[in-house]
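To: structure subgroup
Subject: Chain for Friday's discussion

All,

I'm putting the inputs and outputs inline so they're searchable in the archive.
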Amino acid sequence: MEEKGTSLVTAFDSRFTTNKIQMLKVLMSWIPSSQQGMLAVYIKFLELQYTLSLLHRPEAPMPNTPANAIFWIGATAWMQSHAREWMASHLYLGNAIISVAIIAVALMMVTDMRMFSLKLKNFRIGENFERYLLLIAAVLFVGVFGVEGFAYTIILYFILSACMLPLKRQKS
């Protein structure tokens, strides 16, 4: 059992650390115990630095995890308020729709689609039109539909990102 655990740790180290970090880990057993603590802190610092550099690679976009969570909060609220009666009469179709939604959202999580940022650099309407549009729509959706309005807001966010970013690229 211990060999399997050791091989998993070795596989993790070879995949998610650099050769320099691996050499420092091997060197750890040769250093006096009074200095091992400082070397261990340095190794952890290097591992954190390497992990953060992996997150900032341009070829690996960050998944839209907050958007995914907000969508499922709203979708779950919709299912609790509307779907029970509808799914009782359309059992197989209801399960198919939920399955398609799960697959579609999972694919959106790993796609290379660029989403527009929600941060405001200034308050000009021309430069922040899609942000204001999404904010107004979110207030209306949540005001009219309650918590399930979050799902509609995220769907609109995906649609606006798909439509607006290509238009902005053409302008520049």
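Points worth raising on Friday:
The chain has a mean pLDDT of 76.
The radius of gyration is 24 Å.

D.
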